[in-house]
Amino acid sequence: MISKVGPCRALQHPQDTFEALLHAITYQQLNGKAARTIHGRVLALFGGKCPSPAKFLEQKEDNLRKAGLSRNKLAAMRDLAEKSVSGIVPLRKQLEPLSDAEIIERLTQVRGVGVWTAQMFLMFRLGRPDVLPSGDFGIRKAFGVHFRKNGRMPPPSAVEKHGKLWAPYRTVASWYLWRSLDD
User: Fold this and answer.
1) Mind listing the pLDDT tens digit for each residue in 12-51?
2) Closest CA to 53 of 8, 86, 102
3) N or C: which end of the chain has fewer CB within 10 A?
4) Distances (CA, A) of 1 to 16, 75, 174
5) CB of 33 closer than 8 Å to CB of 143
6) In the chain, helix, strand, coil percent, each to 5?
7) Same structural domain for residues 114 and 156?
């Protein structure tokens, strides 16, 4: 799989916690083009840059809704901003020394941020090398294709059990599983 896909290019994006999660919430359950448009409109309300959590809370709900945010996304973003202001969701530099489990526990307190979103944050924002999102559809599908004779998608527990072999580089293994489905 590695020779077929090529070198791992899992990149760490240096966004802060609020900015990364605001982006993630915007993109949830939308196609890329629609999400980019809405995200751009939201940022335009703040001069084209991600606002601070406090500035986000000051923005009128009508303006954010006109930018294309659904009521649910707006509620999730406001919850994120409130939890960022209160310190439940800290700045990236304060999260970095915490364990993966501690970060997941903090981030999943935000409405609309589940374990999968927190795992993606760990992998692609903090560059954590040993994260295996065993419940991810693509991971499970690729695992079935490459590691099961019948090709069937396994339960997350089977991925976790086998994934112990890939520690401490389960993020890299996940990246290769995803890329293996690109053909």
Assistant:
1) 677 899 999 999 999 998 888 999 999 999 999 999 999 9
2) 86
3) C
4) 33, 41, 12
5) no
6) 60, 0, 40
7) no
